[in-house]
Specification:
Layout (H helix, E strand, L loop, with lengths): L4 E2 L6 H11 L3 H16 L21 E2 L13 H10 L1 H7 L3 E6 L2 E7 L1 H5 L3 E4 H7 L1 H7 L10 H9 L4 E5 L9 E6 L6 E2 L2 E6 L4 E9 L7 E3 L2 E6 L4 E9 L4 E11 L4 E8 L4 E4 L2 E4 L5 E10 L4 E10 L5 E10 L4 E10 L7 E10 L5 E10 L5 E9 L3 H9 L4 H12 L1 H4 L4 H19 L1
Parallel strand pairs: 3-7, 6-9, 7-10, 8-11, 9-12, 10-13, 11-14, 12-14, 13-15, 14-16, 14-17, 15-18, 16-19, 17-19, 18-20, 19-21, 20-22, 21-23, 22-24
Antiparallel strand pairs: 1-2, 3-4, 5-6
Length: about 450
C-alpha cells in the first residue's frame, strides 16, 4: 500500500482548506470546518485523566491518500489490508453472513460492500464522504446534531479535520439480522486519523454495527481522534461494537454519543486492548420515554498504557433505564480507570440505572481507579452502583494447575473468564480475536 498524497504537517487553516478541496465538499462544510478549527484553539484540553500536554498537534499530518481509485472488489484490495482481514477471519465470515464491510486506511475508505437485498430495502452504507455527496439533505440534517464542535476540544479537532468513516441509514421498520462491519487502519507513522461515523436507525428499525481498529508499531506517535454520532428513533434498536487494538504508540481520543428516542434501545459494546492512551466514554442521551441504554466495556492496560474509559448516561425522560457493566484488567504496571456519569433530570421520574465496575489487578505495579459521578435531580429514580477490585484467585489457580494446566495457562484462562460478559456479546470471530489479544498480552507479561 503506497501513499499517493500526504498533507504537510500542521493544523492550519490552509491545510483544512486543502482537505476540503481534495474531498470536493460543498461550501457549507468548509465554513463548518473553519469554525471548528477556531473552536479547537479556544477550548482547553481535558483536565482529568491522562496528561495530554505531551501531544504536539502541529507534529501530525491531517490527511493522507493511499490510493486514487477505491477498490470495488476483494481482488483489488492491497495485500496489507487482506492480511489484516485474514487475521480477523473476516473474508470467510463475509462470504457466509456479513451484511456489509468497509475498511479505512489513514484518511480513506478502501473497501466496502453491501448485500443487494439490503440495498433494495433502502439501507444506506457508504463512506461518510459519499454520504455527504449522495444524500446531502439527510446528511446535513443529522451531522453534528449529537456531537457539535463545541462539545470538547477533541470533537472540535475531528470536526475541523474529519476524513473517512461510515454513513449508515436504516429505513423505518427494516431489521438487519447480520452485522454491518467497518475496519480502521493506521499504517503510516506520525499521522492523525479522524474518521467520523454517522448512523441513523429510523423508527422500528434494527442495526448491529461493528468496527475494528488496528495499527502497526512505529517509533513516532500517531493520533486517533474519532467521533461517532448515533440517532436511534422511536422503537428502534441499535448495537455498536468497537474492538480497539491500536499499537502502543497511538493516542486514542474518541467521542461517542447516541440520542435515544421513545422506547428505543442503544447498546455500546466496547473492547480496548491497544493504544498508549485511551480516553473514551460512550454516551447515551435517553431523550424519549421508555428509552433504554446499555454499555458493556472491557479494558486491558499493560506496560506503558493508560486507559481512561467509562460511560455517560443522561436520563432525560420518564421511565428510562440503563445498565452499565465495566470490566478492566491491569498488568505489568498498566493503569486503567473507570470514569462514569449517571444523570437523572427532574423529568426522568421512575428512571432506573445500574452500574457495575469490576477490576482485576495482576501485579503490585499496576493500578486501577474508579470515578463514579451521580447527579440525581428527582426523588423518584432508582440508581445503583457497585465496584469490586480483585486479584487472581490462588485456589482457582491451584485447582486448574492440578488438572494439568501450567500456571501461565491457568492465569490466562481466569482472565479470559473475567472478560466473558463482554466477549459473549460479540460475534464469534471478534470474540476469538479479543481473547487472542488478551492471551498475547498475558503471555508477554507472565509467560
Amino acid at each position: 500500500m503506497k501513499t499517493t498524497f500526504q498533507l504537510a504537517k500542521g493544523l492550519t487553516e490552509d491545510n483544512i482548506r486543502q482537505i476540503w478541496q481534495r474531498k470536493k465538499e460543498p461550501q457549507w462544510m468548509l465554513e463548518f470546518r473553519l469554525q471548528a478549527l477556531k473552536i479547537f484553539y479556544k477550548l482547553p484540553l481535558p483536565k482529568w485523566g491522562p496528561n495530554l500536554s505531551q501531544i504536539n498537534f502541529e507534529d501530525f499530518s491531517y490527511y493522507q491518500e493511499v490510493t486514487t481509485t477505491p477498490p470495488r472488489s476483494w481482488e483489488d484490495i492491497p495485500t496489507e489490508i487482506k492480511a489484516t482481514y485474514e487475521q480477523l477471519g473476516l473474508p470467510e465470515a463475509e462470504q457466509r453472513f456479513l451484511a456489509g464491510i468497509a475498511t479505512q486506511a489513514e484518511s480513506q475508505i478502501l473497501y466496502k460492500s453491501l448485500r443487494r437485498q439490503l440495498q433494495k430495502r433502502g439501507v444506506i452504507f457508504l463512506s461518510i464522504g459519499e454520504g455527504l455527496k449522495k444524500h446531502p439533505q439527510l446528511f446535513r440534517h443529522y451531522f453534528a446534531s449529537v456531537i457539535p464542535p463545541t462539545d470538547n476540544k477533541l470533537a472540535a479537532l475531528n470536526s475541523a479535520a474529519w476524513s473517512g468513516g461510515s454513513f449508515v441509514y436504516v429505513p423505518p421498520g427494516v431489521k438487519i439480522s447480520q452485522p454491518i462491519q467497518a475496519y480502521f487502519l493506521i499504517n503510516i507513522p506520525s499521522v492523525g486519523q479522524f474518521e467520523r461515523t454517522l448512523i441513523i436507525v429510523d423508527e422500528g428499525a434494527e442495526l448491529n454495527y461493528i468496527e475494528g481498529c488496528s495499527a502497526p508499531l512505529y517509533h513516532q506517535s500517531s493520533l486517533h481522534a474519532g467521533v461517532v454520532e448515533v440517532i436511534v428513533k422511536a422503537g428502534a434498536k441499535m448495537r455498536y461494537t468497537t474492538i480497539q487494538n491500536w499499537s502502543k504508540n497511538v493516542y486514542n481520543l474518541t467521542t461517542q454519543r447516541a440520542k435515544v428516542y421513545q422506547n428505543a434501545t442503544m447498546e455500546w459494546i466496547d473492547g480496548n486492548v491497544g493504544s498508549r492512551i485511551t480516553m473514551k466514554y460512550p454516551c447515551c442521551l435517553l431523550v424519549g420515554k421508555g428509552a433504554k441504554g446499555y454499555v458493556l466495556s472491557l479494558s486491558l492496560a499493560s506496560r506503558g498504557q493508560y486507559h481512561d474509559t467509562g460511560t455517560k448516561i443522561f436520563h432525560l425522560a420518564a421511565n428510562t433505564s440503563s445498565r452499565v457493566i465495566s470490566k478492566s484488567i491491569s498488568l505489568e504496571g498498566g493503569r486503567s480507570s473507570y470514569r462514569g456519569l449517571v444523570y437523572t433530570s427532574p423529568q426522568a421520574v421512575n428512571s432506573k440505572s445500574s452500574v457495575s465496575c469490576d477490576t482485576l489487578i495482576l501485579d503490585p505495579q499496576s493500578r486501577s481507579d474508579t470515578y463514579p459521578t451521580m447527579q440525581i435531580k428527582n426523588p423518584k429514580s432508582l440508581i445503583r452502583h457497585e465496584a469490586t477490585v480483585s486479584v487472581l484467585d490462588e485456589k482457582k489457580l491451584t485447582y486448574l494447575m492440578s488438572r494439568g494446566l501450567s500456571r501461565t495457562e491457568a492465569e490466562g484462562l481466569l482472565v479470559t473468564s473475567f472478560a466473558t460478559p463482554v466477549t459473549q456479546q460479540i460475534p464469534l470471530e471478534y470474540a476469538s480475536e479479543l481473547n487472542k489479544l488478551i492471551k498475547l498480552e498475558m503471555e508477554a507479561s507472565i509467560g
